[in-house]
Amino acid sequence: MHVSVVGNTDDSVVVTVRGNLDIDSGTSLTTTLDQVLDRPAPRIVVDLSGIEFCDSTGLSALVIGHNRAAANGGWLRLAAPGEFLERLLDTVGLTPRLAVYPTVGDALTGRSAD
């Protein structure tokens, strides 16, 4: 798995994740999210377009990140999940709880596809 971070001029951050998000690689995402969440009112978009597989470890990292961002007056939004991950988020009941957007741009602006 590969994780990269890009900061934007408006202080939002895009965390891009590629590969498998599972028990073997989830620590990389958790460590990265810990770093970007350690600021006041964090605004984070997690680009999931490159995720091929995700297990409960990956889902947990996303939920914990969302909770921490909200507790600090910010947000964590998910962007561009593939069909597998979108179905998984829906099946486990996370889509009503986590903000999921079709693109990174939509997630940055908060525009829904509806």
TrEMBL record:
Location of the STAS domain: 10-111
- The superkingdom of the source organism is Bacteria
**PANTHER family per record:** ANTI-SIGMA FACTOR ANTAGONIST TM_1081-RELATED, ANTI-SIGMA FACTOR ANTAGONIST TM_1081-RELATED-RELATED
One Pfam family in the UniProt entry: STAS
**InterPro entries in alphabetical order:** Anti-sigma_ant, STAS_dom, STAS_dom_sf
Identification of the protein by name? Anti-sigma factor antagonist
Q: Which family does it belong to?
A: Belongs to the anti-sigma-factor antagonist family.
